[in-house]
Give the backbone structure.
Amino acid sequence: MKKKVLIIVSKKPKNENSFNWYGLSRWLQRLLGDVEVQITAFDQLVYVSGGGCSAIYHPIDGYDIANFDLVLIRTVGDELERGIAVAHYLDQKGTPFTDSYLLTQGKGKLACSFARQKYLPVPKTVYASQLFIATAIKNSKLRPPFVLKADNGKKGQDNFLIQSFEEMEDVLQRLQNTTMIAQEYIPNRGDYRFLVLGGKVRLILLRKGKEGSYLNNTSQGGSAEVINAKNFPRDIIDKAEQAAKIEQLEVAGVDIIQDITTGEYYILEVNRAPQIATGACNDEKMIAYSEMVAEYLSSDKSL
C-alpha cells in the first residue's frame, strides 16, 4: 500500500524546482518503493478547532493533514503559533509527526484553542491566511452573527460581531495586514472571569457589556460584579482550574461563557496577565492575590 508523507514548511519558495525537500520523494522511493510526498506551507492551510469538528486542511487540494502516514514539520521560523496548532491537532488525531517539541503552549488564540480542545469545550474557531479566510469561514458553516477578531488582540480591540458576510468582507479589507480568526457567537448574559491563583479559583467575576455592545470586557466599558463560587457547579470550577494547569499558570484569568440557549459552558480565553491591582473589583482581587501569596509564604511552597 502506498505510504503518504506530508512536509509542512514556513514558506514555500517561489522557485519550487530548486527546493531540496522535493528530493525526499526520490530517496524514499529507493528505500521503500511506493511513497508519495507532498509539500505545503502553514499559510496555505485552513485551521478549524472546537465545536466537536476540528480539522486542518488544504483548501485547494482538499486533503486533511491528519490523513497522512507521517507529517514532517520543517523550518517553522516565524510560524510557531501555527506549528503548535498543527502539532496538537496531529497528536489528538494519532497521526505520527516530527517534532514533538511543538506540543507546547502557544500565545495566540489559534494555538491555544487547539491545545485546549483536547480537555475542555471551546467555541468553534476558524483561522486561515487572508487569501483563504473568507471562503474558509463560509465553508465552516459559521453563519452570522459570528465573532471576527485579531488573533493577538487584547482587551476587546479589533473584535467585531459580524452580522453579514458583506460586513465580514469589509472588516477583512480594512484589516488586511492583521491576522484574523472567526469564532461562533455564544448567546449570553455576560461572561465569567475565574481568577485562578495558586491552582485554586479564588474569585469569580460576572462581566457584562455596556449598553449596545456585545463585548463583556471591562476595558471596553463593561461592568463587573463578584459572584459567589457556591452558585457554580463544581465541575465548572474544576474546568477553570484545569485550564490554568494545562497552560502552566499559577496566576490566570480564565474566561468562561454560558450559552443561554443550551446551558453549555465554553472556555473563551486563559489570560496570562489578568488585571489584579487595576480594573474592576480591585480590592477583592488584591485580597484573593494576597491569600495566594500568604499560602506560598506560610507553606514554603515553591513557585
